[in-house]
């Protein structure tokens, strides 16, 4: 189990180890925290080391860096970003004949022409999770988190954190204002969600950019309520801090999924890129993913290993509430949301 405290305490040691134990022939551009050995165990067994990693904190940061000329072999965007990578000519299709477990990916994760069309398969979905209310149950009564209006509650002013992620905060705002499908948002719905976010901003202590940072603020007691991915909750539970994950407020919660793209003109080995993906998609990778980060796997056979109790404990089980799925949405609307979020954070 990777605790956020050990990540921080061992950072200098980890950097030293990585310098000696990384493959120079595969550079993975990834979210911080995904360098979990169990996810690339087959790869490491074959090559004697894991791949090299470089990290980012959010999808838009990653895209901007790659669009500006940074070179890596594979990257790990969430689904709503794939169209931007395609439109910018940054990626090329995967040869799925080289990925045996591709056939075992749950079809719902490939149900878009953005991911798969007559030109090929542009995206390999690998992992999924939820965005919902993380809270300290010793300080926050359950009835307070029965609604997303808890983020507007003056009782918690300065004790709330939100992700510094446009997609996640807009998912929250749309849900809070009665929208559970963001693929066809009207002008009135956009304006209502923006107004709600401006109200919520008045209560925000911080916008977290990394689940470890979010977990720190909750562990310290500074933050009592956060709009959270599974990661931060997993880290807090592992270190014994009081935390609960409310995925069924009356307005609902959100889900997302992410995966890997094959970057054009990567500096490393194409063969190793496929070995890395095959390692990730192996059923044996799923327990490591769930234990370390709290995420589900896209491989149907991999998920058959887990009981209903396992899924519920990880915050991945079925909930009786609206769900806003963060699937690809209108690119122009997404850019508008991103710009509006920057204004809101700046107090405008």
TrEMBL record:
Write out the entry's keywords from A to Z: Periplasm, Signal, Transport
Does Nucleus appear among the keywords? no
Give start-end of the signal peptide: 1-21
Q: What is its main location?
A: periplasm
Q: Where in the cell is it found?
A: Periplasm
Which Pfam families would you find in this protein's record? SBP_bac_8
Protein name per its UniProtKB record: Extracellular solute-binding protein
């Amino acid at each position: 189990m990777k605790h956020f405290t050990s990540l921080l305490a061992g950072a200098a040691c980890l950097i030293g180890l990585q310098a000696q134990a990384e493959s120079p022939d595969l550079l993975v551009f990834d979210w911080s925290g995904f360098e979990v050995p169990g996810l690339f165990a087959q790869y490491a067994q074959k090559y004697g080391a894991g791949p090299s990693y470089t990290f980012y904190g959010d999808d838009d940061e990653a895209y901007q860096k790659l669009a500006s000329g940074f070179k890596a072999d594979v990257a790990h965007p969430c689904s709503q970003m794939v169209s931007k990578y395609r439109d910018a000519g940054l990626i090329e299709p995967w040869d799925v004949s080289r990925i045996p477990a591709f056939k075992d990916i749950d079809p719902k994760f490939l149900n878009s022409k953005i991911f798969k069309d007559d030109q090929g398969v542009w995206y390999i979905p690998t992992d999924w999770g939820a965005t919902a209310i993380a809270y300290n149950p010793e300080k926050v009564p359950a009835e307070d988190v029965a609604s997303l209006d808890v983020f507007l509650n003056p009782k918690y002013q300065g004790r709330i954190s939100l992700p510094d992620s446009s997609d996640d905060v807009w998912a929250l705002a749309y849900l809070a204002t009665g929208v559970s499908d963001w693929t066809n948002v009207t002008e009135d719905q956009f304006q209502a969600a923006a107004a709600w976010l401006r109200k919520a901003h008045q209560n925000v202590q911080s916008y977290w950019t990394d689940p470890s940072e979010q977990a720190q603020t909750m562990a310290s007691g500074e933050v009592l309520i956060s709009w959270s991915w599974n990661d931060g909750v997993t880290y807090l539970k592992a270190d014994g801090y009081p935390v609960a994950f409310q995925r069924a407020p009356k307005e609902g919660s959100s889900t997302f999924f992410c995966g890997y793209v094959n970057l054009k003109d990567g500096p490393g080995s194409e063969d190793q890129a496929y070995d890395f993906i095959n390692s990730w998609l192996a059923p044996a990778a799923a327990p490591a993913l769930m234990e370390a980060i709290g995420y589900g796997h896209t491989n149907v056979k991999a998920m058959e290993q887990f009981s209903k109790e396992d899924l519920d404990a990880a915050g991945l089980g079925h909930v009786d509430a609206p769900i806003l799925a963060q699937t690809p949405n209108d690119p122009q609307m997404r850019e508008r949301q991103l710009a509006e979020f920057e204004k809101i954070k700046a107090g405008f």
